[in-house]
Amino acid sequence: MAEHHEIDEDAPIFAIAAAAELSRMHPQTLRQYDRLGLVVPARTQGGSRRYSLRHVAQLREVARMSAEGMSLPAIMRILELENRVRELHDRVADLEERMRTEIERRPGARVFAAGSTGSVVTLRSGTRVRRATEVVVWRPRQQLPPTTTDDD
Known about the structure:
single chain; 152 residues; 2 domains; two-stranded antiparallel sheet; Heat shock protein HspR; DNA-binding; MerR-type_HTH_dom; DNA binding
């Protein structure tokens, strides 16, 4: 069975000449966008720019928006917001995975109840509760709903 490897879109692999060719721009334009903070590549230890696949996609998007008459400050704001959305999406996915792991790690369903003194007590699933003294107030879901994205 073949192993599936995901492509790391953020891996800094392209030198400026290759990134310029892939984005159909002049290398000087890429340098200018870097100086402006529009599309900022990673740097090697020697200081050479290294662009990722995501950078190339951003450069193509900048060219498209610019051709449609958008100003560079407006384009910069759009890229900032897209980056923030991606960061938040990654954070949500990470938190969901951590929750799934935590739920799977704990055997048996747990139920939280309020004790007669107001304290919160944890009960194992199936435990009989004397209703006069304890009331079930919260039960964690066993499964998280699948995440939806704009790509779906």
